[in-house]
Amino acid sequence: MSLTDDRAALDQWYTLGALQDFPDGAEVHSRLLGEDLTVRRLADGVEVRAAGRALPVRTEYGHLWTSFGTPERNLFELPESREPDRRWIHCGPVRVRASGLRLVENFLDLAHFPYVHTDILGSEAHPEVAKYEVEQRRDVDELWATKCEFYQPKAAAASDEGQISKYMYRVVSPFNVMLYKTPPTAPDRWDVIALFVQPVDEAVSVANAFMLVIDDTSTDAELSAFQQMIFVQDKIVLENQRPSLLPLQPGRETPTRADLSSVLYRRWLKEKQLRFGTEPRTDLPNA
């Protein structure tokens, strides 16, 4: 597979992973949107090259970012990254045989908590998804889901009893999403858990989980292990979904009331005319 010609995909910022995973002086080979890359961390910065040309580079939020095109916007703002009492936790990359868009949509799904993350993020005795609100914020080109609540037996690594967790979801670009949730020890603030997805090919992705949390109890290893455990459970589901690419045409998959975020996300992708990682559509002229 070669580099896509999908302009909507090319003109985005993508992470290639946490900066800590690129040793000084070493040459690291990677892949993005079907194209091979070479990453070299130098004394004065980071160089990313593909097919003989240098690509633009950003180093924000402890991650390395690049693009094949000309993004309309800079990277998203993350004010919590400037708060001195937050823990920065890089959970490590996880390779998944699924479209990166499937990963983002799964991240947005509250309804799977009781059945995939049983007795951790959800309980089969409390499967209901309470009504929540979704909106497209056109001034920043982001999607938000707010007023989300869910009963969780173990909401975080520091939890020792169940709680009603409050959530907000924020999609900042097609392959980058984060959630804000109430930490057990600071109910007046929000933990931030981000999923930065590197779409290797259309049906292969690397998930980079990143947390900015308020937790004075757990070790870095415990926080990372908790998040990895959750994502490994998701990985099993994601790799068994069919089709592995995300369908955007009407009628291919039937949403429920709990899927408001997914419906808005798919509508947003269609509005952007994004094709990479989506199932070929038959509802278009000459498709």
In short:
The protein has 287 residues and is an alpha+beta fold.
Descriptive report:
The chain is an alpha+beta fold. The protein folds into 2 domains: 7-66, N-terminal domain of TfIIb, CATH 2.20.25.680; 79-272, Naphthalene 1,2-dioxygenase Alpha Subunit, Chain A, domain 1, CATH 3.90.380.10. The protein has 5 helices and 14 strands. The chain has helices at residues 7-10, 100-108, 113-116, 220-238, 260-272; strands at residues 14-18, 27-32, 35-42, 45-50, 53-54, 57-60, 63-66, 87-96, 133-137, 142-152, 163-173, 176-181, 191-201, 204-213. The strands form 3 sheets. A 7-stranded antiparallel β-sheet has the order 8-14-13-12-11-10-9, with helices on one face. Strand 2 (27-32) and strand 3 form a beta hairpin. The mean pLDDT is 85. InterPro entries: Cholesterol_7-desaturase (IPR050584), VanA_C_cat (IPR044043).
Topology overview:
Elements: H1 7-10, E1 14-18, E2 27-32, E3 35-42, E4 45-50, E5 53-54, E6 57-60, E7 63-66, E8 87-96, H2 100-108, H3 113-116, E9 133-137, E10 142-152, E11 163-173, E12 176-181, E13 191-201, E14 204-213, H4 220-238, H5 260-272
Antiparallel strand pairs: 1-7, 2-3, 3-4, 4-5, 6-7, 8-14, 9-10, 10-11, 11-12, 12-13, 13-14
Helicity range: 10-25%
Instruction: Please write the string of helix (H) and strand (E) elements.
Output: HEEEEEEEEHHEEEEEEHH
Strand segment tally: 14
Question: What spatial form do the alpha-carbon principal axes imply?
Answer: globular
Q: How many separate domains make up the residues?
A: 2
| Main sheet summary | 7 strands, antiparallel
* CATH structural fold name of the largest domain: Naphthalene 1,2-dioxygenase Alpha Subunit, Chain A, domain 1
How many helices in DSSP terms?
A: 5
User: What is the residue-mean pLDDT, rounded to a whole number?
Assistant: 85
User: Mind telling me the CATH superfamily name of the largest domain?
Assistant: Naphthalene 1,2-dioxygenase Alpha Subunit, Chain A, domain 1
Radius of gyration: 19 Å
Distance between the termini: 21 Å
Main β-sheet, spatial strand arrangement:
8-14-13-12-11-10-9
Organism: Devosia insulae DS-56
Keywords: Oxidoreductase
GO molecular function, one term: oxidoreductase activity
Protein name: (2Fe-2S)-binding protein
